[in-house]
Write a structure and sequence with these properties.
This protein has 7 helices and 26 strands. It has 427 residues and is α/β, with parallel strands linked by helices. It folds into 4 domains: 23-39 and 192-335, 3-Layer(aba) Sandwich (Molybdenum Cofactor Biosythetic Enzyme, Chain A), CATH 3.40.980; 49-63 and 156-190, Molybdopterin biosynthesis moea protein, domain 2 (Alpha-Beta Complex); 68-152, Beta Complex (Molybdopterin biosynthesis moeA protein, domain 3), CATH 2.170.190; 345-425, MoeA, C-terminal, domain IV (Beta-clip). The strands form 7 sheets. It has a 6-stranded mixed β-sheet, with no helix packed on it. Strands 16-13-17-21-20-18 form a 6-stranded mixed β-sheet, with helices on both faces. It starts with 22 loop residues before the first helix and ends in a 5-residue tail after the last strand. The relative contact order is 0.13. Bound molecules: adenosine monophosphate and magnesium ion (MG). Adenosine monophosphate is lined by residues 199, 201, 203-204, 216, 218-220, 265-267, 269, 272, 313-316, 391.
């Protein structure tokens, strides 16, 4: 890339640096170092959404609780299924869902039954209503029926006392429903993580204030707030802190005292890091890395007091990328779930993408399903969003995925296959 290129992007100037750390190694080091949670609390079922199971939840009941019909039809004794031709049975009454038929069913008899209604004593088989011939108070059934058909046995889905959710399971809408079906109205979950963050930089002003010359609005606290809110952690927003020694030192001490995790943005790049480094050396143990990735090269990780610390770069896109790639997996482990790699797909890239070998890149792309593929509707196509500078937040907003270009790649041509990480797969 040359400086006459109309899409020249100053952040491309960070050349390959042999001293830089591989992004995969940085992630492994972070995830291996942080610890799972210890503190547990019991919450009401609805409040368990987005939380992580801390102790096995066991079913209070059999699900289904009673043997019941899977169809609208007639509950019969299987011995009445004729070997040939038809059999005629007399209808005793009806078993409704929630209002069972009181008496037993004997050979030669049957009960009309609704889906989900309890099977009457003596009956073991349901004949679909479409398959009977009804005449006054009798039905005719044919030989084409199997003993036990259309019946759901008590405890078929979950047995009483069986584990419904394992420790470490993240509770989604399906898990809430599953717990409810097993009669569990309180859940033992890990306590919410407390995450404190602040932005550093003399040029930053909070949104809502007037800007003087050379000042910009702080956007990183908003992207961080958004990403953290979706994780359901407790958020402590400590605002904007100027590039001033005492103020930064005070902010770090405050944050570490109030939270399990401290995240900052800005101030870890070369030239700024020095005095932040000094403060962090006093307050804890922090590694300052140059990660071989773009965006997001500088990254600090370690401990400040008792809190885990992530020092993210200042550039708005770098903040989001480093959060998703490093902080999110670490937070998931600290929340009590195990790390899993997000799902990626392969796609045909419509754009030519420039890149230097020696670092992994997360370019922002728009992923669509191929309409004219073979067969139609199969396969994905991806194109890049506009300018890819690490300060261009619009590239994240326009995008729905990251196009992941591996270390060794030195750019791709239009039509090449690339690996894509859909944003939907991240949180
Ligand atoms: P730094 O890492 O502090 O050198 O910042 C790199 C770039 O990101 C500079 O252009 C900063 O002005 C910008 N920046 C840093 N923090 C923020 C923030 N909180 N919101 C928006 N831009 C920021
Ligand atoms: Mg700064």
């Amino acid at each position: 890339m040359t400086s006459t290129d109309p899409h020249h992007d100053p952040s491309c100037m960070d050349d390959f640096d042999p001293a830089s750390l591989d992004a995969g190694q940085a992630l492994a080091q972070i995830v291996d170092t942080v610890s799972p949670p210890r503190e547990i609390e019991t919450v009401a079922l609805r409040d368990a959404l987005g939380r992580v199971v801390a102790g096995e939840s066991r079913s209070r009941i059999n699900v289904p609780g009673h043997t019941n019909s899977a169809m609208d039809g007639y509950a019969i004794c299987s011995e009445d299924i004729p070997a040939r031709n038809r059999a005629t049975l007399s209808v005793l009454g009806t078993s409704w869902a929630g209002r069972p038929f009181a008496g037993p069913v004997r050979p030669g008899e049957c009960v009309r039954i609704m889906t989900g209604a309890a099977m009457p004593d003596g009956a073991d088989t349901v004949v679909m209503q479409e398959r009977v011939e009804k005449k006054d108070d009798t039905i005719g059934i044919d030989c084409d029926n199997q003993p036990g058909q259309n019946v759901r046995q008590a405890g078929e889905d979950i047995r009483q006392g069986e584990t419904v959710l394992e420790k470490g399971k993240l509770i989604h809408p399906a898990e809430l429903g599953l717990l409810a079906s097993a009669g569990i109205d309180e859940v033992s979950v890990y306590k919410k993580l407390r995450v404190a963050f602040f932005s550093t930089g003399d040029e930053l002003r909070p949104v809502g204030s007037e800007l003087q010359k050379g000042q910009i609005y702080d956007s990183n606290r908003y992207t961080l707030y958004g990403m953290l809110s979706r994780l359901g952690v407790e958020i402590v927003d400590l605002g904007v802190i100027g590039d001033e020694r005492n103020a930064i030192e005070q902010a770090f001490s405050d944050a570490a005292a109030r939270a399990d995790v401290v995240i900052t943005s800005g101030g870890v790049s070369v030239g700024e890091a020095d005095f932040v480094k000094e403060i962090l050396e006093q307050l804890g143990t922090v590694h300052f890395w140059k990660v071989a990735m773009k965006p997001g090269r500088p990254l600090a990780f370690g401990k400040v007091g008792d809190a885990w610390f992530f020092g993210l770069p200042g550039n708005p896109v770098s903040v989001m990328v480093t959060f998703y790639m490093f902080v999110l997996p670490a937070l998931r482990k600290m929340m009590g779930t195990s790390y899993r790699e997000p799902l990626t797909v392969t796609a045909t890239c419509s754009s030519r993408l420039r890149k230097r070998a020696g670092r992994i890149e997360y370019q922002r792309g728009i992923l669509t399903l191929e309409k004219n593929g073979d067969p139609p509707g199969h396969g994905y196509r991806v194109s890049k969003t506009g300018p890819q500078g690490s300060g261009v937040l619009r590239s994240m907003s326009d995008a729905n995925c990251f196009i992941i270009l591996p270390m060794e790649s030195s750019g791709i041509e239009a039509g090449d296959t690339v690996r894509v990480l859909p944003f939907e797969a991240i949180v």
